[in-house]
Amino acid sequence: LNTMKGILSERLLRRFRYTLIARMMRFPRSYFENTSQGELVSMVTSEAEPMGGLMGDAVAQPVFQAGQMLIILVFLFVQSLWFGLAGVALIPLQAYLIPMLQRQINLLNKERIKEVRLFSSEIGETAAGISDLRTNGGWRYRLATFTDRLGRLFDIRFQIYQKKFFMKFLNNFITQLTPFFFYAVGGYLAIKGQITVGALVAALAAYKDLSNPWKELLTYYNQTQDMAVRWEVVVERFAPRGMIAKEHIEGEPAEIPHLRGTIKLEHISVRSADGSAILDDINLEIPKGSRVAMKIPNQTERTAMAELLTREISPSRGRVMIADHDLADLHQTVLAARIGYAHGRSYMFQGNVGDNLLMPLRTSPKTVLWDPQQMDRDAIETLRSGNSRDSTKADWLDPGIADLNTVEDINDWWYELVKAIGTEEIMFRRMVTDPMDPEQNPELAANVVALRGEVHEKLKEQGLDKVVYRFDPDRFNPALPLGGNLMFAAPVRSITQAGLAMERGFLAMVVEHGLAEQAIAISQTLVETLHHTFGRDGTDHPLFTALGIEEDLYEQLVDIASRRRNEGDAVLSEDEFSLLLTIPFAFTAEQIGPAFPENFKQEILSIRKNKGALIREKARDLFTPITPDKYLPRMTVLENALYGRISAVAGLQADLVLDVVSDVFKSHGLQQAVAINALNFPTTLGGTNMPALFQERMSFARAAIKRPDVLIMNHSLAGHDAEALGGLRNQLSELLPEMTQIYLESHFDSPNDFDMSIEIRGGRVDGVAQIDTPNQEDTISDDLRRKLRIIARNDLFNNLDPRNQRLLAFAAQWVSIEQGGQIFAMGQRPDAVYLCLSGKSELNWVDPNGASHHVSTVEAGRLIGDLAVLMNEPRQFDFFAVEDSSFLRIGADQFRSVVENDRVILLSLLRTVSSHLTGAADLLRTAGIDIPRAGENLPAPLGDKRS
């Protein structure tokens, strides 16, 4: 029975805690700003814990005790009506007094719980701001506030103790009063002969047994009242106003519709907790696929607008419509899949980068791990406890959310985002210098091994092979620790000095082969050198940190070396000797320096040659042999590609080595495969081990990885310059042309780079500028809108009148040219201008001998053929595509008509021609060509043999 009660209480407690956490998922964001984490943690853990015990006794305790009491009362009434009445005479008095006193105690308990929550909140706040308290001298006042809080807790508890123990005294007094009357009245009646002594003794014994269940029932009542207070206080805090509707967050929607359409804000007002207006009567209409700049100087208003569009806050009036869907009616899964939100305070959860990045693609499990008809124990307990039946062991990754098919597609899309930010090279260089688990990426591991020969040849060509210590079974490698040189092997897992000291079998092998004496001598010299260099208080120096020794271990080694120097080996314990012996296995000969004797290197090579295989076999759990065809798991990708290690004194040449490896990997298309290892990088609580710039990029990537229909960037990527952000916006428009991009900032340097510019001041719309798209979607086709967007973002056309931009877009045609294809030829009539969108092309001119000469390379964003069209003269050059390229072709007549009617484009063309002339002058000056004066003969054309 007790076991079943315990199981029942645990199931109910598990259900209760899960319910609280599930409700917490529905809290409005503003509630978390006013409620501390410590308070919520306290309620779910410590405050809920006592309820579990009572839940198990909720039925069993009153039934069992009341049953016992009823049987005893029946016995008393059977013995004598007066005995029965005497036994229950004072119970009504207790039933009145005890609950009355308990209610007073409950009120005090309620106050106590509130004070404890505030106390917990203040502790959490102190822990978070401890540095500010110390540096600003606030610790004494803070301690005084804790004293005040603890004093109030003491006073409340003192009152509880007074009332609680008075109640116990009163209860015990009344309980013992009945036996007194039994003895007094019953004894008198027995003397008079009206009852027998045996009946009196039996009645006394029965009443004695009656008091215990009655006392237990009173205790149970007190517990239920105490738990009722706890329940009321907890439930009160877990039912705030503005919670997301249960049906919007539980379960799954019937479908996840796309939100590609117009965004409408209709009479939107948002108010703060105190009722003041943050946004007031906002009316906006944002066309589908637009790139919108929202200038909102006030941070509170900016955050409110962003959270309004993600439904993190609800408007006090009005509604938000996206693609004819009311935002308030959509399931949270739809918002999570179709709206991306990146901001500067994005949270990173403990795990790894991949877990955080792919969160939007893990909204529900895609596999079921148990048969509903034959559930295992965990599934049955989950069902009985009312918890989620979703298993963390299931496959949650769903590429379909991003309209992708496979995990490889997701990786490719992530790398496109990395390139859009312009950090692919940074990412590669960061990850190539980190270890990689070959079991997680066997294909890359095999490719790295296959490239070792090519990498070595490239290094030799550039004379960089001298700064790389390649692994050679016949040579001592100064960049490998003693253990690696002894066995010509690399560790299979991370091995600390403390961990290696515990490997007694391995250290015994070192002693057995006669290496202990010199290893200990090296250790002694190195520790003394470190102590002489850094002392006891220099462990915070970057040079010491680079050694990788823990401060506590360093101090322990200094103490061991000091005692050994003064008193010899005899004073060292076995553990201390083992720890000192591990030092050569943790440092390289380069790090140890001259203290590592040359004869010791030769001795190590001799042992490796004669007994290396035997030693490797004995240490196979710790080390793996170094062979040209094997990937070494604990070495970095760079070291595996080099099949060696870069010298510690390589200096700037180390960067040149990395450049060579980068070029080789790039030529084989492996940069992406290396960069993807970043997804396995561990993240600590809150991402504190990541730099702020990385967290910014992480926030953006997490918002964009799902290929959303609406992307909201609230002061995101603030650490990047305007040029990088402009490039990112253009890349996103090319990658996801139908996605609506909304950027919220306090200021924009180039609002004309956007399709729409909105300014909000004082909570109201202060201005709306429609830059390149009309208000109504149905007045323009998607194709024309795309052309218009491209033209508006070109440097030559971005300041044109919107009407002329639309005319150019209407006249423009898409043109795709394969590699080697000709766009136009020298001497042809100028029929159009070409705006390069992608790829690379070249302008060439042909001399009288038919030889072709390079003039210029044309890349995305450049307009070609404009001067020939304006002057109406034949083409001066041949124009070929050197890569697959795409263009917008604008007819000559349409282009001339726009230029003739818009002075802005004339000025832009004049600036362009001026820059070309300046460039030509610089080229002539560099080439040393003399320009003939008037009347002088022109020099012979290049390639002309007539002279």
Automatic annotation (TrEMBL):
Residues 796-899 form the Cyclic nucleotide-binding domain. InterPro entries: ABC1_TM_dom, ABC1_TM_sf, ABC_transporter-like_ATP-bd, cNMP-bd_dom, cNMP-bd_dom_sf, P-loop_NTPase, RmlC-like_jellyroll, Type_1_exporter. The chain crosses the membrane at residues 69-93, 169-191. One of its GO terms (molecular function) is ABC-type oligopeptide transporter activity. It is a multi-pass membrane protein. SMART domains: cNMP. It is found in: Membrane. Residues 1-226 form the ABC transmembrane type-1 domain. The keyword Membrane applies. Residues 263-787 form the ABC transporter domain. Keywords: Membrane, Transmembrane, Transmembrane helix. One of its GO terms (cellular component) is membrane. Its main location: membrane. This is Cyclic nucleotide-binding domain-containing protein.
